[in-house]
Amino acid sequence: MKWILITAATLALAGCVSKSAETTAMQAPPPTDVAVTAVVQKDVPIYGDWVATLDGYVNANIEPQVSGYLVKQDYREGSFVHKDDVLFEIDPRPFQAMLDQAKGQLAQAKGQVAAAEGQLGQARAQLVLTEINVKRDTPLAAARAIPQSQLDNDVQGQAQARATVQTAGASIQAAQAAVTAAEAAVETATLNLGFTKVRSLIDGIAGIATIQIGNLVGPTTVLTAVSQVNPVKVYFPISEQEYLALSGKLKSGSADLLRENSSVPLQLTLSNGEIYPHQGRIVFADRQVDSQTGTIRMVGAFANPGNVLRPGQFGRIRALTGLRKGALLVPQRAVTELQGRYQVAVVGPDNKITIRTVQPGERVGELWIMNSGLQPGERVVSEGTSKVRDGSMVHPSPDTPAPAAVQ
Description:
Elements: H1 2-27, E1 32-38, E2 40-62, E3 68-73, E4 80-81, E5 86-90, H2 93-142, H3 148-195, E6 197-199, E7 204-206, E8 216-217, E9 224-239, H4 240-252, E10 266-270, E11 280-290, E12 295-302, E13 314-331, E14 336-338, E15 341-347, E16 353-364, E17 367-372, E18 379-383, E19 394-398
Parallel strand pairs: 1-19
Antiparallel strand pairs: 1-18, 2-9, 2-13, 3-5, 3-8, 4-7, 5-6, 7-9, 9-12, 10-13, 11-12, 13-17, 14-15, 15-16, 15-18, 16-17
Helix pairs in contact: 2-3
């Protein structure tokens, strides 16, 4: 009887243990299905990407150099004009009158020079005559053949003739100075008359006229603007940190984006997403960092056949800034951020999840360079990161290969 009770108790206990294990097995969640990607190690070219603004290579405001009423517009707005083409005309009549007056004053000054030269000739002739009289009468006065007073009069006349010659010479100099001033006035009047035709200063695209025919204009009036757009300039700001990093690479010889006429090509993406077919080059870097934005402005240039690109357009500039050798790459979607910390879910050989903190670097396409926290060949969760926890079991499957980082 005792043996029967022990056996029954043992069977009952075994039944309870079996039922408990079955219940535990029913409560354990199955492994989570996730997509995983292996950490890839390769040499990766690093590109910079910046917002760009286009502008004319040379922009010239067209302003008149004289004041007057605008009487004619000689160009078609938005058309290509050449240097020295007449764009506007100012009423020339007042300036023509001033030129005629200046020419008259020049002729009068030249007449005064001629008159002064004639007076000088007469004074010199009179001086010669007085010198002859003095030379003739000096021995006669000494021999008392003529009165001494006659010789004195001859000497006095000679002195007066010499003074007259000097005065006539001074008159000629004054008349010649008047001629020089009159010639300058004629030249100024001629220039002002020429300035009534307002010309283009450069070859380029002429903009919309800002002044209407009949308006009074002056040297401070901007009539229009002309922009040279082939080549066209591109302005894009880079951060101070990027500038210092590029400067360090420049010293080491690994990149020369900052160098004047750099050999590093620039790629321009237009606002509609199209890549501009011509490559650009760096022209120069600005002289200072903007203290408000912490950026320094870079200037590039692109060939612009057909004048397709225009000042004021926006785009994006892309350029090679360096090469990361042996970089570790994972898809950007595999990285999660939590309070400024970046983490990835690493799948171990036993398909167990380990949440690991990483330090990301540059982004390359849809991939992200990891500076620390991962090893080559490790598997990371790229799809389903929100469904896994540290220590949980997963059922991994290969993810779709990520697009190539860069060509």
